[in-house]
Amino acid sequence: MATTRSQPTIAAGATPQKTGVPLTRAATYLLQRYSLVLLWIIMVVLFLVLLPNSVDLGNASRAVLGQQTPVVFLGLAVITTIAVGEFDLSFAFIYGLAGTAFPALVVLHGWPVWPAILVALAAAVLVGLINAVLVVVVGISSIVVTLGTGSVALGIALLMSNQSNVSGLDPGLAQVALGSFLGLPAVFWYGVVLVVITAYVMTATPLGRSMLFVGSNPNVARLAGIPVRRIRFGGYLVAALLSGVIGIILACGVGGFSTSTAQVQMMPALAAVFLGTIAVVPGRFNAIGMFIAAYFLLTGMFGLQLLGLSGWVTNVFYGAALIIAITVSLLLRRRARA
């Protein structure tokens, strides 16, 4: 006797039960890419609870976002070299060389502003060129070369400044860095524009795709017809140019430059770059993630300072952030390969 397969019935007026899979996937997607933003919000709330009621959130936000910090520019310089498979440790020293050379030539040697700016930028790019030649052409380790050229750049900067802080630039030049737009200084908006341009180039142009291809596997990239040597060469030059530009901009903003502050920016920039790999594009060095990470770190430091912690806590905070960021980035890349 033939049997019939029973069919499920749905009661009148009832609707089929929807699965939560799409919602779960969406939540997972957002958490993977924007967990750092969530942590940033939690950090702000925590500081608001711990800090005195006299702290104004609006003023504090403007103070963080408007800090005259080269972290974003230097972070972009690091990303530019890492993207093509290189590692440049001279970026902070190049920043210090250009930042010192410009006011030293104007104040100590009486140069006009524009020739001094051009010479300072040329000095920065020259260090990048030396890095590129020794690493790309000669084949020396990038870490060894960039540490060496960075030390030379620092020594030249100290020589040009007579080993002292250089100040006395025309106060009118401060508008280059501090001119306000929407309540924030111009240097902040310069960083935003450069981050957007870098993100676009790296993700939506043939040049950016070639850079990532070279960084991931230069031998295969060479077989595919990509000019590997030229791209690696360009990475060092662009990184040096970015480092030099921010040095000059900040010198304009404060009316001078202190060479000793250049090395202080190395740890925050590296921490922001590696911490940025857990945001937006997990496991990959990216400009927008670095931008978010930079201000996440600045918020943390600003909050700790308001709580009365300073000095030693800076080294501990940035050092711990760098170690954690590198560890998480490595785990994410291993997971992506798997």
Automatic annotation (TrEMBL):
The keyword Ribonucleoprotein does not apply. InterPro entries: ABC_transp_permease. The chain crosses the membrane at residues 34-52, 64-84, 91-111, 117-138, 143-161, 181-202, 236-257, 263-281, 288-306, 312-332. It is found in: Cell membrane. It comes from the Bacteria. It is a multi-pass membrane protein. Keywords: Cell membrane, Membrane, Transmembrane, Transmembrane helix. This is ABC transporter permease. It comes from Streptomyces coacervatus.
